[in-house]
């Protein structure tokens, strides 16, 4: 099957911020897991109950196997982050902050792959919509006030949403799973980096016979990087504020790992950022990403497509971003159990089945890695060329011209 992730990206002009909200649509071929109704989770645990930003119950979409398969996918939706309380307050009025606005039904992309690079048409698939604005990572027991908006409150319960979703899965057959793929796109890709080990630990505590577990973050490796004008309003500052605002911690109620905390005393927010925590991920992972990620060029580097070639300085900054990506991605390559497909197509939601390196497309290399046909350095296909493969990919649908 041909698998693509498409994104509508851009800042929310009404907020006068780079709000990082993206409407994320996962598309799979017609034979893949079909639509299923939204299921709201109970709020029976008081201050530890799952909740969206507006306090509404968290919900999910579960597509059970039609053939009693024991293969499972858990897929995190993407959709950026809310950068401060006012941003979260506005987000709480959208489908990325309230289950009142979640779609009535959605599908779920099976990421369990066959040996030829096609995804299975039947698995147990749990799709986790994004209702917290911090990649399922924060937790505050009590509602949090919104400065300048009297009476307004926010609920930061991302990690409780995740734990409740995993409990739902275990009660609906994941306690008998033999294969589990945890995946997600964009901000959901970051969730995949952050939380796969937690999910696997919970699953294996109830299902010691779980044989195969992998992590597949898609477009989730966001650099720790300055913007073009070296302004204070940059991605690293955003993530640091979210870390404190949503109370990201490292204990049972925390979405971050204790080993990472010990590595960055005084800079614990690094553990919420892709480049600083892959060395602590124990589950084998395969990362799909562009080193010239479209979203990152626009909202981290903060250069629009029209600016990329407007002058030599801007062009050099874009090219340097690709080099910086490869330098920071080495944190993933250090683990011989990991793999990845890194393209130069300027995309975010890339056409992985159409992008080819060393004679294989992204999904085929993922399958080779999944089945142990390639390991170590051979499990990484990394395009070292300039944007869009030195221009050879410019006409490929999904690659933004450079």
Descriptive report:
There is one protein chain. This protein has 402 residues and is α/β, with parallel strands linked by helices. Helices cover 25% and strands 17% of the residues. It is built from 9 helices and 16 strands. Strands 6-3-4-7-5-10-11 form a 7-stranded mixed sheet, covered by helices on one side. The longest helix has 22 residues, at 312-333. The protein starts with a strand and ends in a 12-residue tail after the last helix. 51% of the residues are buried.
Structural class by sheet pairing and helices: alpha/beta
- Widest sheet: strand ordering: 6-3-4-7-5-10-11
Residue ranges: pLDDT <50 for 5 or more in a row?
1-32
Order of helices and strands: EEEEEHEEEEHEHEHHEHHEEEHEH
Helical residues, percent: 10-25%
Total strands: the figure is 16
Rg over alpha carbons: 20 Å
Average pLDDT figure: 91
Largest sheet: 7 strands, mixed
Tell me the layout of helices and strands.
Blueprint: E1 4-8, E2 23-27, E3 36-40, E4 59-63, E5 71-76, H1 85-91, E6 105-106, E7 124-128, E8 144-145, E9 153-154, H2 158-171, E10 179-185, H3 187-206, E11 212-218, H4 235-245, H5 258-263, E12 286-290, H6 294-299, H7 312-333, E13 339-343, E14 356-357, E15 360-361, H8 362-370, E16 380-382, H9 387-390
Parallel strand pairs: 5-7, 5-10, 10-11, 12-13, 13-16
Antiparallel strand pairs: 1-2, 3-4, 3-6, 4-7, 8-9, 14-15
Helix pairs in contact: 2-3
């Amino acid at each position: 099957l041909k698998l693509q992730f498409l994104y509508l990206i851009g800042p929310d002009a009404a907020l006068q911020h780079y709000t990082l909200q993206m409407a994320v649509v996962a598309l799979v071929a017609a034979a893949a897991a079909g639509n299923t109704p939204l299921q709201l989770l109970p709020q029976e645990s008081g201050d530890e109950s799952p909740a969206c930003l507006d306090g509404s119950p968290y919900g999910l979409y579960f597509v059970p196997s039609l053939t009693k398969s024991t293969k499972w996918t858990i897929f995190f939706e993407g959709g950026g982050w809310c950068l401060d309380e006012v941003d979260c307050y506005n987000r709480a009025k959208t489908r990325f902050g309230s289950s009142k606005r979640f779609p009535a039904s959605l599908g779920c992309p099976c990421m369990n792959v066959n040996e030829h690079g096609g995804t299975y048409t039947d698995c147990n698939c749990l799709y986790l919509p994004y209702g917290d604005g911090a990649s399922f990572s924060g937790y505050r027991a009590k509602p949090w006030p919104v400065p300048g908006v009297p009476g307004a409150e926010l609920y930061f319960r991302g990690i409780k949403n995740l734990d409740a979703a995993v409990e739902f899965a275990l009660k609906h057959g994941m306690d008998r799973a033999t294969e589990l793929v945890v995946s997600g796109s964009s901000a959901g890709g970051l969730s995949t980096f952050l939380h796969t080990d937690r999910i696997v630990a919970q699953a294996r505590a109830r299902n010691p016979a779980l044989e195969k577990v992998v992590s597949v973050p898609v477009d989730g490796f966001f650099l720790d990087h300055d913007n073009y004008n070296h302004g204070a309003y940059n991605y690293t500052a955003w993530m640091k504020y979210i870390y404190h605002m949503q109370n990201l911690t490292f204990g049972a109620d925390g979405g971050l790992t204790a080993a990472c905390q010990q590595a960055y005393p005084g800079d614990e927010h690094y553990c919420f950022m892709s480049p600083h925590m892959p060395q602590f991920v124990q589950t084998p992972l395969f990362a799909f990403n562009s080193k010239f990620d479209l979203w990152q060029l626009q909202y981290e580097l903060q250069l629009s497509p029209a600016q990329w070639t407007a002058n030599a300085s801007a062009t050099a900054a874009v090219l340097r971003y690709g080099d910086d990506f490869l330098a920071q991605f080495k944190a993933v390559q250090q683990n011989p159990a990991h793999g990845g497909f890194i393209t130069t197509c300027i995309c975010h939601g890339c056409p992985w089945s159409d992008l080819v390196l060393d004679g294989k497309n992204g999904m085929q290399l993922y399958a080779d890695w999944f089945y142990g046909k390639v390991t170590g350095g051979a499990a990484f296909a990394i395009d070292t060329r300039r944007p869009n493969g030195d221009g050879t990919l410019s006409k490929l649908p999904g690659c933004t011209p450079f």
